[in-house]
Amino acid sequence: MPALEAVQELSPKELEERGERLRNDGIVIRTYDLWKTYIMGDQEIHAVSGVDIEIRRGEYVAIMGPSGSGKSTLMNLIGCLDTPTKGLYYLNGKLASDMEDDELARIRNKEIGFVFQTFNLLARASALHNVELPLIYAGVPSQERAERARTALRSVDLEPRMHHKPNELSGGQRQRVAIARALVNRPSILLADEPTGALDTATGKEIMALFERLHSDGNTIVLVTHEPDIALYAHRVIHIRDGKVELDEETPRPERK
Amino acid sequence: MHSFFQDLKYAVRTLLKRPLFTSVALTSLALGIAVNATVFSWVDRILLRPLPGVINAGEIVALKTVAPNGDLLDSSYLDFKDFQKQATTLSAVIAFKQRPLYLGDVATGERVWSEMVSGNFFDVLGVRPIRGRTFSAEEQNSRPGSPATAVLSETLWRGYFRSDPDILGRKIELNRHPFTVIGIVPSAFQGTVNGLRFDLWVPLTMVSELTGSFYWPDDRNARPLDLMARLKPNTSLKQAQAEVQTIASRLALEYPDTNRYLSAAVMPIADSPAGAQRILGRLLKVLLVIAAAVLLIVCANLGNLLLVRATMRTKEFGIRASLGASPRRIAQQLFTETLVLAVGGTALGLLASAWMVHAVEFFVPPTDLPLANLAHGFHGLDLLFTCALGFLAAIFCGIAPALQLFRHGIQEALREGGRFSSPAARSRILRSGLVVFELSLALFALIGSGLFIRSFQNARNAYPGFEPEGVLLAGIDLSQAHLSKPQRVTFFQRLRDQLTSLPGARSASLSEHVPLGFDNGAWEEIRIEGYIPKAGENMKLWRDIVSPGYFATLKIPLAAGRDFNERDSSASQPVAIVNETFVKRFLPEPPALGRKFLLWDREFTIIGVARDIKYQRLNEGPMPYFYLPLAQAYSSDMGIAVEVRTASRPDTFAEVLRSRIRSADPNVLISVTIPFASFMSASYFAQRVGAHLLTVLGVISLLLAILGLYGVMAYSTTQRTGEIGIRMALGAQPAQVLQLVMREGMGLCLIGIALGLIPSLVLARLAASALYGVGNHDGWIYFAGALILSAAALLATWLPARRAAHIEPTKALHWE
Ligand SMILES: Nc1ncnc2c1ncn2[C@@H]1O[C@H](COP(=O)(O)OP(=O)(O)O)[C@@H](O)[C@H]1O
Ligand SMILES: [Mg+2]
Question: Is residue B449 domain-shared with residue B316, that is, in the same domain?
Fold first, then answer.
């Protein structure tokens, strides 16, 4: 990995060429010395401090670490929900760390599918409408929108319940709606932050099985968790501690469930 | 009771803990109540108590002579006597005439507005003297010229006479005639014209001594008197009306020369043609309605604030509920808080209104009339009204949160943790409903002010048929000058010549009346040669008596013939100038010039035709009118106005004019000097007051409603932070979030506009008679009102919307 100075001194043209190269190499996510620093009073908290990671298309990666280690912050940076204090972040060859709000919104819409611990569904909207939301912001015409949302719900086996409101669905069903919503715009990566955190063990397993299937369908998945046995579902685990990458390892195949 | 005091203590403590909320609530409530208390005190003074200081004023009615065309006229002294004698439905009739008198020396004397009254005046009105006695009917039955006695107002006594303890029996001079003071009446009594204040009363029988005119009480054809009557108890207005009509027709038969075709009418003071109620009545009603709208907006705002607070305090209520408080008990607690706010707001509002009542004085046009103080102190009824309002406001404001508590029960309110649960949605609908209500009321108030602004503009820009700009007016009084009638006429001529030759004066003239003041002028009954009136046709025509140069000075165009000149004198043939409507109505066959009419047993020949102007009111229809030359028609009891058209601004000329009149004869008194344009503003006084006050109320309503909208939108976006975060995570652009919030806010605004238009149309109906030249073509006022409201609403929703658009999605998603 290149040294910090070398990257920072690149000209715009060189930055662009680097992105080009990353994309040609099939690298979806690449961060260079990524920092996120919060100022709390007179104290600086480095939630993410100098992270360099690389994730290729089709990978299934877990980011694991104890609570407060900076997983969610990193996830927010990768998901373009937040911008780094310092460092570079390439998503699909584009330099996301440099982008304005509007562009970030477009990236979130097109390139990223989010799955949250607490589902984050719109309570007053039906499952179908929840799944349609990203398509609305993508400007997809309503006919096609409904069609694609139904297809996405079908792929998580929820088509029969598409007119139900979230409070009429079980936790597992809600998470499946959230996953359908994350997939509906065919994003480059699926980002899941503690997707099983609010579910019982059995339902959690179901959801992990669904992720497994999605991965084998060719999706790139980044999973954030603090539970080692959930992390083991992934093919590669990045261990985070105090905002730094502590260890980046392939999961031993035989141990995978 | 114990629990009430407990609640009270707790309520005060809770309110003190939230100083911002409490002060916002108190100020807006005080504002709403002050506005209402103020308007109501005007309504009370002008419409409900038109005759302050009079006992059982509700029984007092105006008694008018009615011309064949329905015009309400003043009456003759002899008719007054007959009504007094014959009417059985009336316990008594009084007669009076207003006039300024000069008290004391010419040099140091004071011009005092006085009433010459019949002997029973004070007894019938039930006004008791605070010192001495008032007049008696018997002493006036004696002969003309006695008794020379006077009754003073308490105000005059305390002011001019410095509370002289030996005032009773003291000799004073009125218009150079000795009078003896016999009594003082309380200052609460201000005379018989609503809105004016009189300070001195003298017997009607002294009229010749005071004015130098002939003794007209002997002449049934002289009708200068105002009459009022007191209805007998248990007598209806209808019965009295029927009776005075009967008496009038009897008089018409008995005295055909003077009373043929005349009828009579009684009416409540509120409907009588003289007084402030005529000018301001309709406007006051409109103001009252709009003020109510302001208060409702305040209440809706406060209701919303309380609703939000109640929602935020569910935890506190939960604790209280777990300690055994019933929902009813908690609602009671909430209501006590509202009540404390209402009491505070009412007290503050009363204080503010004591100051606000003076607003109306600010608009009073310059006039020499003795305008009464309409900003009187608070009357019991006003206090009652205000307190009732405060209490109603408390109920109205408290109802939303209490309703919510009762509807959902405290338990449910407790469980309402999730931000999308349905009780929250319902309270959101309630909040939105209140804001829509506010917005519609604000539109209503805005349109109200729009209508009156338009009306004021119309009135101010209306062309009255002459050019008031550049003319200076002065009122002069010759009662103190030792001049015979012919000498006075010569004095007028000399004065006019001198004024005309002044540098800076373009032209000058004199006249008895000037158009478009507070009073209507005078009329005469004439017979036109060659014109046969239809049965009952009104031949009593309004007229003025003017010097040569009057038409030139006011720039009233002459359509035909010539102006009066110095050769039209008492020695020459009587001449007249008539207006175009006169010609159209009575002399359709040309030529009009050279035709004659009969008046005062003299034959006047028409030598000129003047264009029509507005004589009494800007919105009057065309009316026949004529002018007679001052030299031929002057009589000694006329007041005289001087008009000068100046080269520069007229007000800069006032001092020159005064000194020139004084040097012409130091005994001629000058009552006022005033630019015609200001004088004329009396004719659109109500428009002016209306436009200004309603604009103030409109702006207050707009601000309050917009504040309300802002509050609701700000709260609603806070409540929706999570939802907005989700949308942003899914790719909503900041602009799309902005749109989402704006759509909600502007949606409320549009509903408000739709709902507000309906009452606005009703308002326009209600106000129609108080408006000048506002009609169907003024639909843009509604549009403009809606536009202003929308623009303000746009700002009010844009601020929270912008904040929402800049929410950081990470923070929003953590919002749990
Ligand atoms: N918005 C914030 N402001 C200040 N400090 C924050 C903020 N978000 C996270 N942190 C801090 O950054 C560190 C990492 O937090 P986070 O990324 O949520 O960890 P994890 O998801 O691994 O539990 C923690 O110490 C947390 O307190
Ligand atoms: Mg976390």
Answer: yes
What's the pLDDT score for residue B468? 86
Question: Which residues on neighbouring strands pair with residue B65, listed in sequence order?
Answer: B73, B264
**Mutate: best of A81, A106, A188, partner B, most B CBs <10 A:** A81
- Lowest-confidence region among B134-148, B237-251, B725-739: B134-148
Say if residue B399 is in the same domain as residue B308. yes
Answer whether residue B769 is part of any domain: yes
pLDDT in tens, A166-209: 989 998 999 999 999 999 999 989 999 999 888 899 999 999 99
By most ligand atoms within 8 Å of CB, the mutation choice from A34, A35, A45 for ligand 1 is A45
**Where do the domains of chain A lie?**
4-255
Element (H, E) at A223: strand A220-225
Mean pLDDT of B481-496: 84
Chain A residue with minimal CA distance to B421?
A123
Q: Among B639, B667, B695, where does a domain finish?
A: B667
Q: Determine which of A111, A120, A194 to mutate to test the interface with B (most B C-beta atoms within 10 Å).
A: A120
Decide whether any atom of ligand 1 lies within 6 Å of the A81 Cβ. no
The shortest C-alpha distance from A34 to chain B (Å) reads 17
Q: Please, which residues have CB within 8 angstroms of residue A191's CB and are 6 or more apart in sequence?
A: A75, A78, A79, A112, A113, A114, A115, A182, A222, A224
Work out whether the CA dihedral B340, B341, B344, B345 comes out positive or negative. negative
Q: Tell whether B679 is covered by a domain.
A: no
Of A38, A76, A83, A245, best ligand 1 pocket probe by most atoms within 8 Å of the beta carbon: A38
Q: What is the pLDDT of residues B294-350, one digit of tens each?
A: 989 988 888 888 888 777 777 777 777 777 777 777 777 878 888 888 889 888 988
Are residue B542 and residue B405 in the same domain, yes or no?
no
Residue of A nearest to B726 (CA): A120
Q: Which of A75, A122, A191 to mutate to test the interface with B (most CBs of B within 10 A)?
A: A122
Nearest CA in chain B to A167: B421
> Which residues in chain A are contacts of B730 at CB distance < 8 A?
108-109, 114, 133-134, 137, 181
The Å distance, Cα A168 to ligand 2 centre, comes to 27
Amino acid occupying residue B229: A
Of the residues B624, B641, B667, the one at which a domain ends: B667
Lowest mean pLDDT among B80-94, B117-131, B636-650: B636-650
Identify whether residues B244 and B289 lie together within a single domain: no
Identify the CA nearest to B783 among candidates B423, B324, B451: B451
Report yes or no on B467 lying in a domain.
no
Q: How many domains does chain B have?
A: 3
Determine whether the shortest distance from the Cβ of A39 to ligand 1 is under 6 A.
Answer: no
Token pair 């909207």 in the structure block, residue: A125
Ligand 2 centroid to A67 CA: how many Å? 7
**Contacting residues of B for A76, CB less than 8 Å apart:** 810
Distance (Å, whole) CA A243 – CA A232: 21
In a domain, residue B35? The reply is yes
From the CB of A38, is ligand 1 less than 6 Å away?
yes
Whether the per-residue pLDDT at B154 is higher than 60: the answer is yes
Q: E strands, B82-176, where?
A: 90-103, 110-117, 131-132, 149-153, 171-174
First-to-final CA distance of chain B: 42
pLDDT band for B414, please (50, 70, 90 cuts): very low
Instruction: Name the CATH architecture for the domain at A4-255.
Output: 3-Layer(aba) Sandwich (3.40)
Neighbours of A203 (CB within 10 A): 17
Over chain B, what is the mean pLDDT? 83
Note down the domain range covering B547: 479-667
The verdict on B253 and B298 lying in the same domain is no
Spell out where B611-690 has E strands. 625-629, 640-646, 669-675
Say if residue B631 is in the same domain as residue B500: yes
Q: Are residues B348 and B483 in the same domain?
A: no
Query: A136-160, pLDDT tens digit by residue?
Result: 999 999 999 999 999 999 999 999 9
- Give yes or no for residue B166 having a pLDDT over 70: yes
Amino acid B407: pLDDT: 61
B128 pLDDT exceeds 50? yes
Mean pLDDT for the stretch of residues B441-467: 88
B594 with B456, same domain? Answer: no
Q: Which two tokens stand for residue B614?
A: 């507005």
Q: Which residue has the tokens 């409408």?
A: A129
